[in-house]
């Protein structure tokens, strides 16, 4: 029985391009971001990948990435579930600020701690630990059962919501996950054993 999960971070967004903290804000994809999502769909189609169900966040950059991928594999009308449990990490008071301006205001070291530490949240926002506290229960109750029933599942979401899943799937420590960055629009294909452990992982370079 095949048990397949494909995780994809959304394509480049307008605020990624402008070097802004995004979080739960809802900017659109850039032209490059659209191209990345289309390329991901084309690559998965070349692999003859077909999905039984798709999951995405409550934010349009992930939703549009998901749709471009489904279009690319010839499954434009596939059932897609949207849930804010898969939203990006909430950057709180940093949301909308230029990252360089934030460093000038709070200092390089403090901003680095907010961005890269596992359990220190920015003012009014979420740490990666906080993000995992909402993404992992949703993954366990809604996404993983679909995978374990023998389905192929697509999940298009965000850098940090997906990092919280990758941390568990790849069995990374709270220190190791800090060095993990997910490329925009790059699919990660996981295959699972019957006991829910990971059989294999393949990163599909575009």
From TrEMBL:
- Pathway the protein acts in: Carbohydrate degradation; glycolysis; pyruvate from D-glyceraldehyde 3-phosphate: step 3/5
Q: Report whether Isomerase shows up as a keyword of the record.
A: yes
Please give the function described in this protein's UniProt entry: Catalyzes the interconversion of 2-phosphoglycerate and 3-phosphoglycerate.
The record's subunit annotation is:
Homodimer.
What's one GO BP annotation on this UniProt entry?
Answer: glycolytic process
Q: What class of enzyme is it?
A: isomerase
Give the protein name, as stated in the record. Answer: 2,3-bisphosphoglycerate-dependent phosphoglycerate mutase
Superkingdom assignment: Bacteria
Molecular functions per Gene Ontology: phosphoglycerate mutase activity
Q: Which organism is it from?
A: Cohaesibacter celericrescens
Write out the catalytic residues in the record: 10, 88
Which Pfam families does the protein's record reference? His_Phos_1
**For binding substrate, which residues are annotated in this chain's numbering?**
9-16, 22-23, 61, 88-91, 99, 115-116, 159-160
- List the residues marked with site Transition state stabilizer: 158
Ranges in coiled-coil conformation: none
Q: Which gene specifies this protein's sequence?
A: gpmA
Q: Which reaction does it catalyse?
A: (2R)-2-phosphoglycerate = (2R)-3-phosphoglycerate
Family per record: Belongs to the phosphoglycerate mutase family. BPG-dependent PGAM subfamily.
Q: Which UniProt keywords apply?
A: Gluconeogenesis, Glycolysis, Isomerase
Q: Which InterPro entries match?
A: His_Pase_superF_clade-1, His_PPase_superfam, PG/BPGM_mutase_AS, Phosphogly_mut1
Its organism's taxonomic lineage begins at: Bacteria, Pseudomonadati, Pseudomonadota, Alphaproteobacteria, Hyphomicrobiales
Report the EC number(s), separated by commas if there are several: 5.4.2.11
